[in-house]
Amino acid sequence: MPRQIFQLKMSLVGVRPPVWRRVLVPAGYTLDRLHRVVQHAMGWRDCHLHSFEIDGVQYGEPDPDGELALHDELDARLDAVLGKGSRFSYTYDFGDWWEHDLVVEDALTVDPDERYPACLDGERACPPEGVGGPLGYEALLVALADEDDPVGPVDPRHATLRDWAGSTFDPSRFDPDRATTLLRRFC
Questions:
Q1: What span, in angstroms and rounded, lies between the C-alpha atoms of 155 and 146?
Q2: Which of 7, 51, 122, 123 lies deepest, with the highest CB count within 10 Å?
Q3: How far is the C-alpha of 24 from the C-alpha of 8, rounded, in Å?
Q4: Which strands, in side-by-side order, build the sheet including 50-54?
Q5: How confident is the model over 70-118, as pLDDT tens digits?
Q6: Beta-carbon neighbour count of residue 157 at 10 Å?
Q7: End-to-end Cα spacing for the chain
């Protein structure tokens, strides 16, 4: 039986302009491996908790204290819980609450001349870790836009936010080839 590849589109919820990625992943991956794909494709650093919700069932790393009722993501293969057209969510960083909407856009046959996973496309940089969720990211984007105002900053706190983000952060930048390199190295 030919192996299957899922084409997934992942979009960050509550962020404008949109931040999204389109990736190809083996359908035999577990949710644990998909977690790593999301992390590297989006640009997160994997330093917070996460969970998936598929058809009302929560998956993630088992909680040793039993406080979170999660099914073990290591036991769930994508092709067992998802199919073409499936829509599900991935939440990263329960403090900032970065919710991702994921859709299985297509189910393809493996191309023996290709390597997987791969990032096909995407838009915009991932928000910086610790920015404060979608509202904090919106404030950062306003602060970055304020820097270009010829009259000067509207709010003196904007300079602090810009300094915190660093001079190399460009919210409009995304490189799918770099994302593919990271996916193949770490997933």
A1: 8
A2: 122
A3: 6
A4: 71-72, 57-60, 50-54, 87-92, 98-109, 4-12, 20-26, 118-123
A5: 999 999 999 999 999 999 999 999 999 999 999 999 999 999 999 999 9
A6: 12
A7: 24
Token pair 């302009």 is found at 17
**pTM of the prediction?**
0.93
Give the tokens for residue 178: 């770099």
| Residue recorded with tokens 């960083």 | 93
Residue 13, helix vs strand vs coil: coil
Q: Which helix (H) or strand (E) holds 184?
A: helix 176-186
CA distance 187 to 184: 6
- Residue 43: phi, psi to the nearest 5? 110, 15
Task: Kindly state the helix (H) or strand (E) to which residue 108 belongs, with its residue range.
Answer: strand 98-109
Pairing of strands 71-72, 50-54: unpaired
Question: What value does the CA radius of gyration of the chain take, rounded to a whole number of Å?
Answer: 18
Sign of CA dihedral 104, 75, 3, 185: positive
Beta bridge partners of 169: none
Strand-strand pairing, 57-60 and 50-54? antiparallel
How do beta strands 20-26 and 118-123 pair?
A: antiparallel
Q: How many CB atoms sit inside 10 A of residue 186's CB?
A: 12
